[in-house]
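Most newcomers find our protein records easier to grasp once they have seen one. There is nothing in a record beyond a sequence line and a structure line. Getting from the letters to the tokens is the skill we practise here. An example says more than a description, so a record of this kind follows:
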Amino acid sequence: MGTQKTFIGIFGRRNTGKSSLINAIANQEIAIVSPQAGTTTDPVKKSIELFGIGATVLIDTAGIDDVGQLGEKRIKKTKEVLKTIHVAVILLTDNMFGDYEKEIIQELTSLEIPYLIVHNKSDLVPLSSALKKELSGYNVPILESNAAEKQGVDELIKKLVEITPPTVYTKKSFIGDIISKNDLILLVMPQDAEAPEGRLILPQVQLIRDILDNHAVAVGLQPEELDSFLQKQTPDLIITDSQVFDTVSNTVPLHIPLTSFSIVLARAKGNFENYLKGTPHLDKLQDGDTVLLLESCTHPTSCQDIGRHKIPNLIRKKTGKRIDFEMVSALSPLPCLDKYAMAIQCGACMVTDKQVAVRIKQIVDYKIPVSNYGMTIAYLTGIYERVTQIFAKHTP
């Protein structure tokens, strides 16, 4: 599923050496280092290669004990990072371990994020036996380091590799379990006003690569050429842009499997079962309900925008109800969920599995039905069973 990146967050109080640790791991000066507490304000990201993991993004965060109004905002941003990472490092110094660290640990545990604890600057103040005993109760690796002198960093990297689930960085296949060698996979890709000039969008590129990796044959065309192509050849599977479901489903014979890019992505990202359960709630929407639309990237919009215009218009038309819609873009924090009757997530091609899974978990835990762009369109156009059927016997 393209290049997998592992996101590792570094958390700790001010002046515990978080920036020094990141510089030591990356073996270069990428974060500002200063003896003055509070030097790091916003999260700072650095992409590196870690042996044993591969492509990795290290995230340096502001101190979890920051003070004042600005400090509160920095802490808020630091906590937002928790919802975007796969692994965490909690940094301590001077044997200080209390409510700040315990709150972060509680969040990590709730989000099922593996972590380890590092006592830094141990050359100045070693880890005490009493604190070591207390920390052992968390059943996570406990290390000592002197990041400024790059001492203990090799052991830290080794432990990071050990606690990072292989599923985070192992390359996954979108459709490798449902296609075979030499299968003909037809991709229907309208190049409308929403399509970027001179290139394909990421899900299309990802699917083409996945098809090639599985030694199948990928053919791409626009909806206008579909009928002519089907008169000459019969594909083993057709994957279409959800926006042209109507046209494509009416053209493709029922014996040819059909699905969409968005539905393939939904399944690959690991939230497919929640979408299957939540999508039928579209029939239960009432006048005055508010639907939350979740878009995992930011891009210029137009009147053809699928999330801001096409889906809301389709839902209003098909349900006949007066329904309001609100949009959250990129990985912005979710608003208070009290007011929403339903949520609909885009294909999430621009974010990691973990990032979208954390977002969906918040919604599902709040007992809000959730669907996916492609599955919503399929349901409202009457082809939902058809476009999800191919995955019925193939769970991720």
Observations:
- The chain has three domains: 6-169, 184-265, 272-380.
- The longest helix spans residues 68-81.
- Residues 78 and 153 are 23 Å apart (CA to CA).
